[in-house]
Amino acid sequence: MANIGTDMIVNHPRSSWIRIRTMILIRWMAIFGQSIALFASILVFDLMINIPLCMFAIGISVVGNLFATLVYPETKRLSEFENMAMILFDLVQLALLLFATGGLNNPFSVLMMAPVVISSSILPLRYAVFIAATAIAMITALGFIIFHCGPNNCLSCATQIFLFSETGLRLQWE
Asked: Which of these, 157, 160, 158, 155, lies nearest to 173 by C-alpha position?
């Protein structure tokens, strides 16, 4: 019978095998996808979104990637804490993008699960729980800001872009 005691919390042999180059490449793919989605929503769908805030969020990721590329060697293996910090950064950046583009009404809001799933597969339990709790707090905050305050009644600069009706998804053209 396997021992599932405190070893699960204390020991996690797979958490230091990820190279920073891997995380940087994944983040470049995310930056590319976020940029394509932003430009498509502006140019193709003509949605009214907060472009400066979106560009700021994507720009912070670009700066973070460039910093990591220039400062750390490609072969550096990230510690548990460094992995958690990078995943947490990505989670916060995604929450900021969702805030600027409609909150939980945005179809991409399901991507908030991605950092949680990744952290649960590569990080020790304590860090994975921290990432999951942070994601839950951010989702709750996004829901509160958009749904309870309303887009025009509080400090939110997000608008309700995507509205669901009986006939399905329709875009709100403002």
From this structure: 160
pTM over 0.85: no
Alpha-carbon distances, residue 131 vs 21, 80, 113, 147 (angstroms) = 21, 13, 10, 24
Distances (CA, A) of 18 to 13, 14, 27, 32, 77: 11, 8, 14, 22, 6
Per residue of the chain (174 residues), give pLDDT as tens.
555 555 555 555 555 678 889 889 999 999 999 999 999 888 887 777 888 999 999 999 999 999 999 998 888 888 889 889 999 999 999 999 988 887 887 888 898 999 999 888 888 999 999 999 999 999 998 887 765 555 554 444 444 455 444 444 444 444
Please report which residue ranges of the chain form alpha helices under DSSP H: 7-10, 20-43, 51-71, 80-100, 113-122, 125-143
